[in-house]
């Protein structure tokens, strides 16, 4: 089977991290975002060809994908759009690759994280036998999203309602689809929105079915949601693979620690923390609800809550960082500073507190 | 035989009782007894007077008797007892007498110049130099003057001198336009001849105000405002002279200026009281710059203190605590990993682990040698200005929160972070 992953552009929503690393390669819980999907596709649905729809070329991404091809024993292609093609156009661009055989194929938004239900999707799709299946997830406040109205027992989709003012459904598009190749006849090679232009037509023709996603789901395209997604992911790990989580003195709740990371004495790490490879946390540090990326160094007595610490960054002593502070790569934060919702661009050295949320160029 | 009078400034006109600008700290202790650089504010005055006099010292104190548990009389007499320090006694105003009233009722001592200081100033008190100047050329009034920049001079008493003779030609209190960059330090040397003009003023004021029929309101008949009634009236008549200093000097009006004064005094301890400064010791905390630690305080060895930190009696400082530019008062507890910057932690307060208590300094512009503390109003345009953080007495700060640029009134238990607020 094949899968097309809509990687897209520069990942601006996840800046400043994506100024150093293409978004698919940013580590989410110590694994590149993209690999969470690719590995699940291979393992759960036997996908052997992954096509990345990218709108800019990155040597770093190509090199990494070559390595993953070898490691996973699959084929990974890049489909490069010269101009933005929306969410449907990339399917038309990759038409040849997708129609090499008559199998249905996956289409995934690259920013989502969940317990990927790829085997169940294949089964569901074959069972209803129509052109498309989309995965839906329940949300608490449907009025903020476009919702999917479908038949309770079969899942056949009736219609889509954008930001409903009265309750019609609490299910939203989760950004994971499976299509039969015939769907490509509906899509022209031009900028097209699959959600707004293709799906409503398919629904009207009775060709589109919704499969409800059990468990957690998050779009992790922005730092705030990235952290929320991390909490959900770690909680899911607690239920499915608790042995991967860290435990011991100073560890609170769900904490993921790379074996090469070092933690000092009298720390309080967690709940909901992931520490990447070669991270150093000195004595007396408190970290909650944070992602600390490879090679970062947190000096003693600092306090971090809801932050992403970029690769090789250095946080001084008695620093307080909170409220979705994001440090890009190789940022230095001086001793005793307070960062509140700061977004710090790579290679920056910070010598003054940032008491209100802002971007540090 | 020298005598000194320490008077309190303030209570000009229908103002609230003294020390209100020093709230919430002055709820607990009269402002003169607030510890600056580890000792009560007024002890710096007493020590300076004692150095030049070695004899009697008067305290002048309005309305509050400095007695009872905070009493200076008992504790000072005993702490100075036998060490050759001055004997002193109180004079208590029974009605506000103004800034000059304290000098007047003193019975004439024969031929004795009398230093007089207002208590809410921080200075290196160059009383010796003033006495020397007086010996060379005696005048009834000798004022200590220093320089301020043009803008800030308007907040002080301004002195115009004859640069040759240093006679005060003109004196005006808090002018609305620029008059002079020489300002009155509130430290005076009066010779007994000064008492005659003071008496004249006293009598004239009494007559005038009785004629006005306004004796019930302030200024009352018995008041002498040293600045307006004496200095302004007598300037240019060969009676008032100014002695200029470029030593340390600052007013201590607000808690923020206490922190600044503390830095000045701690710095001065290097010369005057090196034994009061904490030193790096094996098993002791890391000391950076000038730090005072009361001998009864318990400070963990992994704590890092300084510069400008004063730790009061019985204070507990936990492992991994960072303190900089702060005063921690009697009995307070700072738990592990807390960070306290530019703040005053009140008596018996507790700061939980990993909490951060931080203020914003309003120190004089370091690039302007004539800059002084700015006028210290808390608000501008209805907004609380960023200033040092003050925790009142017995405040409890929970673990991991941030208290930034805030004032917490006594006996408050907080449950979350606060920024730019006064917490009642």
TrEMBL record, chain A:
A GO molecular-function descriptor: GTP binding
Assigned GO CC terms: cytosol; GDP-mannose pyrophosphorylase complex
Pathway(s): Nucleotide-sugar biosynthesis; GDP-alpha-D-mannose biosynthesis; GDP-alpha-D-mannose from alpha-D-mannose 1-phosphate (GTP route): step 1/1
Record bears the keyword Isomerase: no
Chain ranges of the Mannose-1-phosphate guanyltransferase C-terminal domain: 251-360
SUPFAM superfamilies hit by this protein: Nucleotide-diphospho-sugar transferases
Matches recorded under Gene3D superfamilies: Hexapeptide repeat proteins, Spore Coat Polysaccharide Biosynthesis Protein SpsA, Chain A
Pfam families on file: GMPPB_C, NTP_transferase
Assembly and binders: Component of the GMPPA-GMPPB mannose-1-phosphate guanylyltransferase complex composed of 4 GMPPA subunits and 8 GMPPB subunits; the complex is organized into three layers, a central layer made up of 2 GMPPA dimers sandwiched between two layers each made up of 2 GMPPB dimers. GMPPB catalytic activity is reduced when part of the complex and binding of GDP-alpha-D-Mannose by GMPPA induces allosteric feedback inhibition of GMPPB.
Enzymatic class: transferase
Entry-linked InterPro entries: GMPPB_C, GMPPB_N, Hexapep_transf_CS, Mannose-1P_guanyltransferase, NTP_transferase_dom, Nucleotide-diphossugar_trans
Reaction catalysis annotation: alpha-D-mannose 1-phosphate + GTP + H(+) = GDP-alpha-D-mannose + diphosphate
The keyword Nucleotidyltransferase belongs to this UniProt entry's keyword annotation: yes
GO biological process per UniProt: GDP-mannose biosynthetic process from mannose
Naturally occurring in which organism (per UniProt): Sarcophilus harrisii (Tasmanian devil)
Name under which the protein is recorded: Mannose-1-phosphate guanylyltransferase catalytic subunit beta
UniProt record similarity statement: Belongs to the transferase hexapeptide repeat family.
Cited function: Catalytic subunit of the GMPPA-GMPPB mannose-1-phosphate guanylyltransferase complex. Catalyzes the formation of GDP-mannose, an essential precursor of glycan moieties of glycoproteins and glycolipids. Can catalyze the reverse reaction in vitro. Together with GMPPA regulates GDP-alpha-D-mannose levels.
EC number: 2.7.7.13
Domain Nucleotidyl transferase: 2-231
Assigned keywords, A-Z: GTP-binding, Nucleotide-binding, Nucleotidyltransferase, Transferase
Source organism, top-level taxon: Eukaryota
UniProtKB/TrEMBL annotation, chain B:
Family matches, as SUPFAM superfamilies: Nucleotide-diphospho-sugar transferases (SSF53448)
Annotated Nucleotidyl transferase domain residues: 19-52, 120-199
GO molecular function list: enzyme binding; enzyme inhibitor activity; molecular sensor activity; transferase activity
One Pfam family hit: NTP_transferase
InterPro entries named in the record: GMPPB_C, Hexapep_transf_CS, Mannose-1P_guanyltransferase, NTP_transferase_dom, Nucleotide-diphossugar_trans
GO CC annotation terms, alphabetical: GDP-mannose pyrophosphorylase complex
Stretches assigned to the Mannose-1-phosphate guanyltransferase C-terminal domain: 287-423
Domain of life where this protein originates: Eukaryota
Disordered, as annotated region: 1-23
GO terms under biological process: cognition; GDP-mannose biosynthetic process; glycoprotein metabolic process; motor behavior; muscle organ morphogenesis; negative regulation of biosynthetic process; negative regulation of nucleobase-containing compound metabolic process; negative regulation of phosphate metabolic process
Similarity comment text for this entry: Belongs to the transferase hexapeptide repeat family.
The protein's name in its UniProt record: GDP-mannose pyrophosphorylase A
Species of provenance: Sarcophilus harrisii
Gene it is expressed from: GMPPA
């Amino acid at each position: 089977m094949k899968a097309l992953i809509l990687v897209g552009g520069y990942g601006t929503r996840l800046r400043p991290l994506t100024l150093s690393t293409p978004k698919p390669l940013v580590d989410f819980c110590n694994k590149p975002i993209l690999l969470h999907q690719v590995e699940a596709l291979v393992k759960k649905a036997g996908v052997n060809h992954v096509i990345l729809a990218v709108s800019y070329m990155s040597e770093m991404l190509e090199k990494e994908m070559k390595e993953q091809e070898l490691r996973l024993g699959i084929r990974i292609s890049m489909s490069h759009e010269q101009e933005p093609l929306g969410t449907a156009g990339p399917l038309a661009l990759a038409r040849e690759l997708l129609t090499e055989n008559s199998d249905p194929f996956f289409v995934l938004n690259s920013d989502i994280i969940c317990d990927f239900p790829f085997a169940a999707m294949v089964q569901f799709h074959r069972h209803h036998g129509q052109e498309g299946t989309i995965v839906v997830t329940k949300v608490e406040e449907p009025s903020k999203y476009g919702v999917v109205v479908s038949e309770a027992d079969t899942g056949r989709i009736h219609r889509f309602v954008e930001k409903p003012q009265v309750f019609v459904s609490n299910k939203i598009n989760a950004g994971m689809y499976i299509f039969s190749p015939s769907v490509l006849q509906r899509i022209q090679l031009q900028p097209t929105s699959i959600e707004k232009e293709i799906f409503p037509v398919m629904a009207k023709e009775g060709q589109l079915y919704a499969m409800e996603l059990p468990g957690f789901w998050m779009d992790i395209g922005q730092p705030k949601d990235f952290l929320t997604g991390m909490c959900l992911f770690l909680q899911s790990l607690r239920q499915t693979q608790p042995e991967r989580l860290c435990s011991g003195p100073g560890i609170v709740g769900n904490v993921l620690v790379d074996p090469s990371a070092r933690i000092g004495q009298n720390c309080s790490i967690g709940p909901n923390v992931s520490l990447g490879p070669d991270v150093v946390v000195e004595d007396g540090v408190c970290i909650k609800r944070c992602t600390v990326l490879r090679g970062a160094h947190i000096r003693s007595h600092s306090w971090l809550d809801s932050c992403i610490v970029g690769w090789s960054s250095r946080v001084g002593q008695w620093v307080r960082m909170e409220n979705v502070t994001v440090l890009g790569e190789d940022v230095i934060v001086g001793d005793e500073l307070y960062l509140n919702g700061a977004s710090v661009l790579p290679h920056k050295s910070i010598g003054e507190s940032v008491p209100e949320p802002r971007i540090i160029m | 035989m020298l005598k000194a009078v320490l008077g309190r400034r303030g209570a000009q006109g229908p103002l609230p009782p003294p020390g209100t600008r020093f709230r919430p700290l002055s709820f607990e202790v009269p402002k003169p007894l607030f510890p600056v650089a580890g000792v009560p504010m007024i002890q710096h005055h007493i020590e300076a007077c004692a150095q030049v006099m070695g004899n009697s010292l008067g305290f002048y104190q309005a309305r509050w008797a400095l007695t009872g548990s905070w009493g200076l009389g008992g504790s000072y007499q005993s702490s100075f007892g036998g060490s050759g320090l001055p004997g002193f006694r109180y004079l208590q105003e029974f009605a506000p007498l103004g800034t000059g009233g304290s000098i007047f009722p003193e019975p004439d001592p024969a031929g004795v110049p009398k230093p007089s200081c207002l208590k809410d100033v921080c200075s290196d008190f160059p009383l010796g130099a003033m006495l020397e100047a007086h010996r060379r050329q005696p005048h009834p009034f000798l004022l200590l003057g220093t320089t301020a920049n043009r803008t800030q001079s308007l907040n002080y008493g301004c002195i115009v001198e004859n640069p040759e003779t240093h006679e005060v030609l003109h004196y005006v209190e808090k002018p609305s336009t620029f008059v002079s960059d020489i300002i009155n330090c509130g430290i005076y040397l009066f010779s007994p001849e000064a008492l005659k003009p003071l008496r004249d003023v006293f009598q004239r004021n009494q007559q005038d105000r009785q004629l006005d029929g306004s004796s019930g309101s302030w200024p009352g008949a018995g008041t002498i405002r040293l600045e307006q009634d004496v200095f302004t009236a007598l300037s240019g008549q060969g009676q008032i002279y100014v002695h200029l200093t470029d030593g340390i000097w600052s007013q201590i009006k607000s808690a923020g200026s206490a922190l600044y004064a503390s830095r000045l005094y701690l710095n001065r301890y290097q010369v005057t009281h090196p034994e009061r400064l904490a030193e790096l010791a094996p098993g002791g905390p890391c000391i950076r710059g000038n730090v005072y630690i009361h001998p009864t305080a318990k400070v963990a060895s992994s704590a890092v203190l300084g510069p400008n930190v004063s730790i009061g009696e019985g204070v507990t400082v936990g492992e991994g605590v960072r303190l900089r530019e702060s005063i921690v008062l009697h009995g307070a507890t700072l738990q592990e990993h807390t960070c306290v910057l530019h703040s005053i932690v009140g008596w018996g307060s507790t700061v939980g682990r990993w909490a951060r208590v931080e203020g914003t300094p309003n120190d004089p512009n370091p690039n302007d040698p004539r800059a002084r503390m700015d006028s210290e109003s808390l608000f501008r345009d209805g907004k609380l200005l960023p200033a040092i953080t003050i925790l009142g007495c017995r405040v409890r700060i929970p673990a991991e929160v941030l208290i930034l640029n805030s004032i917490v009134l006594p006996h408050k238990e907080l449950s979350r972070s606060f920024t730019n607020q006064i917490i009642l």
